[in-house]
Amino acid sequence: MKPRSLICMLLAFLVLAASAAAAAPDGYPPRESLEDILRRPQDFILEALSLQGDILTALDLGEGRFEYLLSLRDHPDQVFAATYTLPEGAPLLRPGDGVTVYGIFTGLSPFTGTEALREGAPILEAAAILPLPAGSPARTIGTMERPAPLGQPLTYPGDILTDYASVEITVTRVLRGNAALKKAREMSTYNINPVRAQEYILVYLQVKALSVPAGRAPLANGDFFFVSATGSEYRQHFLINPPASLSPLYKDGTLEAVISCLIQKEDAPLLVYQPESQTPLWFDLNTSP
Hints:
Layout: H1 3-22, H2 35-39, E1 48-62, E2 65-72, E3 79-85, E4 98-108, E5 122-131, E6 154-156, E7 166-176, H3 177-187, E8 198-211, E9 224-227, E10 254-264, E11 270-273, E12 281-284
Parallel strand pairs: 3-5
Antiparallel strand pairs: 1-2, 1-4, 2-3, 4-5, 6-7, 7-8, 8-10, 9-11, 11-12
């Protein structure tokens, strides 16, 4: 047999082997929510299932074994853990990766009072963790590439930046230009007139605290940033005497607030909440629901 033929056969074998290694295992029916498991975990011990999620943290346990903390894609406020022995030579899985976890439910993480995000999280002993196919559309919106339109609520799953509190945020209304200037001046005559090339944008928010492991959800106007269409961050601007500002919320608490910025005229900015986190929330201020 010619060397070229041998090489082609070897390459074909490697492709087939890689495809087999990446194939989804059978016998792990998908779940879109963990609500039943969280409520009655004893009814689901040793059940096989598969979950799609986004990796929040990755902990190296040694000898090729890892523990991942993930937010569920269909319900990002629901968090689960997976332990997994990474196959030799497989690429590392990192925070931010979208994956499907195939595994056996073994119970809930203990409530220790020291790791709020992890406490009570369902644990899977994973048989396989496979990256979502390249080019798969994100299951949820709220990324910089797919920001949420007006009226679309987004859930922040909670992390160290929010004392592990989970909150739901909705942009309900946007004013800009003369309408925004008029409203700002009604709040206080000390709210400045923009320079000729700029204009006000006022964003009305509705926020609800979903879970507050530390007792309350810290919220402030400074958690939100306006980002121009070219990707540059605007300097934060705070209104004088607004009708309502963001402030800490307790469980099931809700509030409505207005935040503002001075932006370039004709710009189409986005709004981002907690941009330094692994799961920032992005809102489109230029579309209707």
